[in-house]
Amino acid sequence: MVLDSIQTYRLAARTDILGPVIEKAIKNAGSPTTASVYLELRSLALQEEPPFKGFSDKGALSYTSANGEVKLLTKEALHKRLQRRAAKGQ
User: Fold this and answer.
1) Which residue from 79, 89, 87, 88 is spatially nearest to 22, judged by alpha carbons?
2) Which of 3, 10, 20, 25 is deepest in the core (most CB within 10 A)?
3) Residue 2 falls inside a structural domain
């Protein structure tokens, strides 16, 4: 008896833990500009509102990723995220 091998594929789910927080910051700021959104996010980070853990000495916002790793969100990285968001028409 010959059994065919079965291949299974697992799709990796990407979780954007910052997406909802950035949307909230845009709404609160009233503008999708990097400077205004960054100020709102900085305020949330200083209050340590999840997923934020605070503000790093490098000028970046510290947050906990979906994998539990502490990462930094720089102003430049936020700018790139906002540009991609604008390109999608959001």
Assistant:
1) 79
2) 25
3) no
